[in-house]
Amino acid sequence: MDLSAEEELIRQAQKDPHAFAELYDHYYSKIFGYVLRRTANLEAAQDITSETFLKALKKLWQFRWRSVSFSSWLYKIASNEINQYFRKAEYKKSTSLEELQEQGFEPISPHDPESELIEAQEKLEQYQEFLDVQKKLVRLPAKYQEVIALRFFEQKQIKEIAEILGKKEGTIKSLLHRAVEKLREG
Amino acid sequence: MKQEELIRKLENLKTPDVELPGHKQALRMALLNSGCFREKTIMDWARILAPISAAVILIAVVGFFNVIQPQLQMAQAKAIASSDLQVQALMEEHKLDIAEVKLQDGEALVLLAPQFASGLDINSQSSPDGLRIFRWILPLFPKPSELTSGEVLPTSPGELSPGYILKVDLLEKKVSECGEIDEATALKDINLEDIDFVKFGPTEGAPSEGAEPE
User: Which chain B residues are Cβ-neighbours of A20 within 8 angstroms?
Assistant: First the structure.
């Protein structure tokens, strides 16, 4: 998406649900994929993705196109949620899809959630080499997990990782170096 | 495994690209039907109105302290001076009017000037004759400093004074001091240190609401 078009879309999305839907459609897969690759847990990925977009929607009016792009802003929210998930034994959601459903909202979907989840789980298990790396990665502190995942799983450039994590590029480089070292030792 | 090998392995790692279309659709609908868009409209209004309200309050506060409050205090000083019996007597005997009121150092200065000059701008260079008259008649009047305690400012009916300055205590709501000026001029041109002020205060036999010089 063109940057100026996205900027205009974000401005509209603060009031117009259709504009927000356009942003959601553009970024859902990226955010869900990132969360899933960080957690390797489909249920957690659903919860965290829901929470990320709900927070983005609630805070969209605060978003200013200054130092970070919208994409980085979303990744930042997702990263915070993932870190919270790893910090707590049981991930507590402030508001999620389930809570919205409890409030009376019933999404109509042609997809069967159960069979969809089983199918996705089977697909995920085919990536055994990835799952081995991920298993070692989650034992590392969150700051190392973040840089490895963003650099190697999400193929982000150092500049973008710095933007997402709110750190200097030099800091990211040294963090990445140490993270790879820790992963190798682990 | 060496670090370079691990980096190469990570770079070539096949990562899962799994999707849950049902979750995507359900979340999409949940978000769009949530109350967030209504809440955001309120937040938008709050965001617009907050700085405007702050500016209005600031203008009101600044306006009150810089314009309204001084005007009120000046009107109050004028009222205090006008209601003082001693001042009333002074004004009547010398045919004086309140010509100017000024706030200075927490008190009010009230200039009493001859009635016929009250309609004139005493700062104006276009009325030199009036100013010349004030200067000429100046030596005819006794100074308040020459008065003994409790004495009423002596004046002769029909005589004209160049004027007096009253110090009005706004807290105690009374005329505290009175000083005679040497020439009719505006308050801003008067050096208060050159004026011998006499204290105003209640004297024996004087009306309780009035004030007389010591």
Answer: 31-32, 37
* A39-43, A48-52, A107-111, B196-200: segment of lowest average pLDDT: A107-111
Level-2 CATH architecture, domain A127-186: Orthogonal Bundle (1.10)
Q: Which amino acid appears at position A20 of this protein?
A: F
Q: Are strands B197-201 and B212-213 parallel, antiparallel or unpaired?
A: antiparallel
pLDDT per residue as tens digits for the range B24-43: 999 999 888 877 776 666 77
Second-level CATH architecture of A1-111: Orthogonal Bundle (1.10)
Instruction: List the domain boundaries for chain B.
Output: 75-213
Whether B154 contacts B142, CB under 8 Å: yes
Tell me the C-alpha to C-alpha distance, in Å, between residue A151 and each of A42, A115, A177, B112, B202.
22, 32, 11, 85, 90
3-state helix, strand, coil in chain A (%, to 5): 75, 0, 25
Which of A156-165, B56-65, B87-96, B172-181 has the largest mean confidence? A156-165
CA–CA gap between residue A19 and residue A41 (Å, rounded): 30
pLDDT of the residue at B85: 87
Measured in angstroms, the CA of B70 and the nearest CA of chain A are apart by 42
Spatial contact of B174 and B200, defined as CB atoms under 8 Å apart: yes
Q: What is the token pair recorded at B212?
A: 């007389």
Facing residues of A64 across strands?
A: none
Q: Does B42 touch chain A (CB under 8 A)?
A: no
Indicate the burial class of A139 (C-beta count within 10 angstroms; 0-12, 13-18, 19 or more): exposed
In this structure, what DSSP letter does residue A103 have? Answer: T
Residues of A in contact with B32 (CB under 8 A): 17, 20-21
Report the alpha-carbon distance of residue B78 to residue B92 in Å, rounded. 16
Q: Which of B16, B24, B33 sits opposite A37 (nearest CB)?
A: B16
Q: Does A89 touch chain B (CB under 8 A)?
A: no
Hey, how many other C-beta atoms are within 10 angstroms of the C-beta on A74?
A: 23
Distance in angstroms (rounded) separating the CA atoms of residues A145 and A182: 10
Measure B69 CA to nearest chain A CA, in Å. 40
Q: Where in chain A is the domain with CATH 1.10.10.10?
A: 127-186
